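Lab notes, practical 5.
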Amino acid sequence: MEIDELKAVAEGLLFASGDEGITIKQLYRILDVSESAALHIIEELKFDYESSDRGLMIMQSHDVLHLTTKPEHSSYFKKLLELPQTSRMSQAALETLAIIAYQQPITRTEIEDIRGVKSDRPVQTLLARSLIEETGRKDSVGRPILFGTSKDFLTYFGLTSLEELPPLPESDDSDDDSNEADLFFERFSDEIDKNLND
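Output from the prediction step:
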């Protein structure tokens, strides 16, 4: 792999590692290069980011690298935070929220078993919007985190308790589980849109 491609992959890894960041050791193991080569790649990326027409920089804290915004642009990020948040949620977030609402307490793995796809991002979105919260840990191997809906969830949907959630579609032997789930998610999505537009 050429240096430019390695730099591109390293940049993607820095972005994907988010707030946790990535260590030099993780980086050179994933890229399958020597430690000195990984350090060289990071130095080149740092140099690229130092250009005034780039909005990002690499911050290093001990051995952990983070991709972050430049401090000189902080006033613009403050304006962004002050803007009203868009109320639309992705279909993945809606599905995940619906599953948590009706199956809580539930682990991320259990959510993924129901959805059939990875659900890290939707769960993070819902946590960031305070619609769900960690409710404890399951007493099983690895003690995974359990998630449930929050008080904000009830407020958001104008509910006083979870008992007021719309009922799930009745199971019908002629319908398979996926059709039933599709109907439910569609109904739940309509409920969300109605609450948002009220």
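Observations recorded by the TA: Residues 45 and 116 are 36 Å apart (CA to CA). Residues 173-179 have pLDDT under 50 and may be disordered.
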